[in-house]
Each structure stands twice: as C-alpha cells, then as structure tokens.
Design goal:
With 146 residues, the protein is mostly beta strands. 0% of the residues lie in helices and 75% in strands. Strands 6-5-4-3-2-1-10-9-8-7 form a 10-stranded antiparallel β-sheet, with no helix packed on it.
C-alpha cells in the first residue's frame, strides 16, 4: 500500500571545535509498507549551497522488526547509512571529489508509529573515519499523511 506523505528530516551534527550544525528538510514523498512488514519512505531533498542547487533522491528502509534503518542517498553526493543499535557499519561517501570511507556507529534507534504512513524514526550515531570520531549526530525522520 502506497501513501502520499510529507517528510520532515532533521539532522544535527556536532563536530569538535565547531558550532552545532542543524539541517532541516521538508518535502513530499511516498510511504509504502510491504507484505513482509518492511517500510519504505522515498523523498527528494533539495539543498542550496554556494549558489548551486543540489537535488538528492533519498530512500529510508525500515526493517519489519524495527531494529534496523538504512538510508540511501543518491545524487551528486551519495551514500548509504545503516543504523542498527549498538552496531558499527562501514559506508562509502561518494562526492564529486572522490570517495571517503567511514563507519556509522549507532548509539540508539527509536521508532514511534501512528496510523499507516505516520512514523517517527530517531537515530543517534557517531561518524568515525580511521580511528577518530569526527561527528556525533542525530537524524530524525517524521512522516505525516498528506
């Protein structure tokens, strides 16, 4: 079953020696739950930076048991982030300047659900490159039926 939704994504990033960075995106999207209970949220993200408009095609896949969430981001900069509480997942971040390899260490992953198509997912995580934690972050994805 597919439903049209509004998607609100908030990312908060804390890097040592820098002020907290908060990014919020609101867009239209599609929510679908499969027969296997897996939820899929698809949405576009538009960012204006240095006079350029970047469009990303994003997909969040939430496991039926609500223990894992994977966010796939496609566009000029692409990556796949896997969140699973207490686990460390290696990922590749592709930019126009080349690839960066990093690890996503999930501290917590919490879901709240309402009617079909209404969900709030919050992942608290760290980004590690080599032996160094470069960011402590939180991503919140909230959906509402349109």
């Amino acid at each position: 079953m597919k439903k049209k939704i509004e998607v609100n994504v908030t990312g908060i990033h804390n890097r040592q020696g820098e002020p907290e960075e908060k990014i919020n995106t609101v867009s239209e999207g599609i929510y679908e739950i499969g027969a296997d209970g897996v939820s899929v949220i698809e949405y576009k993200e538009i960012q204006e930076t240095a006079g350029h408009r970047l469009v990303f095609h994003n997909k969040a896949v939430i496991s039926a048991d609500r223990k894992t969430m994977e966010i796939q981001r496609g566009g000029a900069m692409s990556t796949g982030l896997v969140f699973s509480e207490g686990k460390d997942h290696e990922t590749e971040y592709n930019t126009p300047y080349g690839k960066m390899f990093m690890n996503v260490i999930t501290k917590s992953l919490v879901f709240e659900e309402g009617d079909v198509g209404e969900i709030k997912a919050v992942a608290e995580y760290a980004i590690k490159m080599g032996d160094e934690i470069i960011s402590d972050s939180v991503i919140t994805i909230e959906t509402k039926i349109r």
